[in-house]
Design goal:
The complex is a heterodimer of chains A (218) and B (222). By secondary structure, chain A is mostly helical. Chain A is built from nine helices and no strands. Chain A has two domains: 126 residues, Rna Polymerase Sigma Factor, Chain: A, CATH 1.10.1740.10; 70 residues, Arc Repressor Mutant, subunit A. In chain A, helix 3 packs across helix 4. The longest helix of chain A has 26 residues. The N terminus of chain A is likely disordered. Chain B is mostly helical and 222 residues long. Chain B has a two-stranded antiparallel sheet with strand order 1-2. In chain B, a hairpin with a 2-residue loop joins strand 1 and strand 2. The longest helix of chain B is centred in the first third of the chain and has 24 residues. The radius of gyration of chain B is 20 Å and the shape is elongated. Classes of the chains: A mainly alpha (218), B mainly alpha (222). Chains A and B meet through helix 3, helix 4 and helix 5 of A and helix 1 of B.
């Protein structure tokens, strides 16, 4: 029996080596052995249907499982999911534990299996998934795929910048900010007629600028 | 759901469970089932006509003993491997007897699938052989899958392979008592085909392979 305990503490120490939280790492030596005997006894009670023993056992093993999972999972959420997965598995197969055998290896084996399983699954998922970038269409509707229009919008903005000040202001207020002629006239202090003229000339100039640009690219 | 919530839920819904018997006992239980099936099939279909002569043939005896031994060893290995804290080394247990058994296997059964007669082609002995094979291996496979369903969460592939080997070996031993033809190759192909398909599925579909039997992760109600 004592040999069992010795090998068990060694195994726990190996599995737990390099873990970060002091609470999670079982202390080596007789204390670990005593705790594991506790766990074995608790588990025997759990198999008889004792809920309090179960609560205590699960609470005690959780930090240990968390430190195991944290070695593999970067994301804390992922770590917690792995811990819960192990707890659920312990629950589902709690009848396979034999109280005459040490508890540590039983728990460690289950935890390792489940964590490795999760890693494999997420590896498979990642192999199939590609992160979405601007190049990917998000929806079938053309309205949703605005990224291509960004370039056009930039070209338009730079063309507007190149207009004379009066025309630029007229285009900005009337076309981009969608003010009425009257509002724009009030805002700028110019007459409606001169705004109309500036807009007309501005649009003509833009048409020329942008078609010239298209001509270059084609 | 947070982990403390989960713990509370699990603890409040816990019910008493019956501990599994020792793996050797469970393997023995499955082997008892196998011998009952063997007895029923022999009672139903009769023992092979040349049984007395074959008893004098050392090749037959060695083959039969090796098949039975492979069945016993791999069933024990499967039940051992299905427990989380047992060594993977148990998977090696059936290998020596498997090697002996394979070395005695013939291949008549495959070649005799369709017999040529004056009446033309008809289903040969192999077709009947195949029916017996299904009768023997199906209940054995179902029984061992049900008994090992919780292993789906741990190391399904290794357990499936050793369990498949156990079913194959025992079925082969039963068949060699009933049929004149040595059908071991057919049995191996049939059972390992199934085992390979299951293992393949478990590889591609994750843990879904024992979908009907597998222990699932479910929260207790309430």
């Amino acid at each position: 029996m004592s040999q069992h305990f010795a090998s068990r503490s060694r195994r726990l120490a190996v599995v737990d080596g390099g873990s970060r939280s002091a609470a999670a790492s079982p202390v080596s030596g007789p204390e670990t052995a005593a705790r594991e005997v506790d766990w074995s006894i608790l588990m025997a009670h759990v198999q008889a249907g004792n809920g309090d023993a179960y609560r205590r056992l699960l609470r005690e093993i959780t930090p240990y499982l968390r430190s195991m999972a944290a070695r593999w999972c970067r994301d804390p959420g992922e770590t917690e999911d792995a811990v819960q997965d192990v707890l659920m598995t312990v629950h589902a197969i709690r009848h396979t534990y034999d109280p005459t055998r040490p508890f540590g290896p039983w728990l460690t084996a289950i935890a390792n299996r489940r964590i490795v399983d999760r890693l494999r699954r997420s590896g498979r998922r990642q192999a199939r998934e590609t992160p979405l970038t601007h190049e990917h269409e998000t929806f079938a509707a053309p309205g949703a795929n605005l990224s291509e229009r960004t370039l056009e919008r930039r070209a338009l903005a730079s063309a507007i910048e190149r207009l004379p000040a009066a025309q630029r202001q007229a285009i900005r207020l009337l076309k981009l900010e969608e003010m009425s002629l009257k509002e724009a006239a009030t805002a700028t202090g110019t007459s409606i007629a001169s705004l109309k003229v500036a807009t007309h000339r501005g649009l003509a100039a833009l048409r020329k600028l942008l078609s010239g640009r298209n001509g270059e690219t084609r | 759901m947070t982990t403390p919530d989960l713990i509370d839920r699990l603890a409040s819904g816990v019910t008493p469970v019956r501990r599994l018997r020792r793996p050797a006992m469970r393997a023995a239980g499955w082997l008892v089932l196998a011998s009952i099936i063997a007895g029923l099939l022999i009672a139903g279909q009769g023992i092979r006509p040349d049984f007395r002569q074959s008893l004098a043939d050392p090749g037959f005896l060695i083959g039969l003993a090796a098949a039975v031994l492979t069945g016993v060893c791999s069933a024990t290995a499967a039940f051992m491997l299905s427990l989380p804290d047992r060594s993977r080394g148990w998977a090696l247990l059936p290998l020596p007897s498997l090697a002996l058994w394979l070395s005695t296997i013939g291949y008549q059964c495959l070649t005799n699938w369709i017999a040529f007669d004056p009446d033309g082609m008809r289903w040969g002995e192999t077709a009947r052989c195949f029916a017996t094979l299904v009768l023997a291996s199906l209940p054995l496979s179902l029984a061992i899958l049900v008994m090992l369903r919780y292993a789906a969460l741990l190391r399904p592939s290794l357990v499936t392979v050793t369990a498949g080997l156990a079913v194959s070996a025992i079925t082969a031993a039963i068949m060699s008592l009933i049929h004149n033809f040595d059908s071991s190759i057919l049995i191996l192909i049939w059972n390992f085909g199934v085992a390979a398909v299951i293992v393949g599925l478990s590889g591609t579909l994750g843990r879904r392979m024992l979908a009907w039997f597998a222990t699932r992760l479910t929260l207790p109600q309430g």
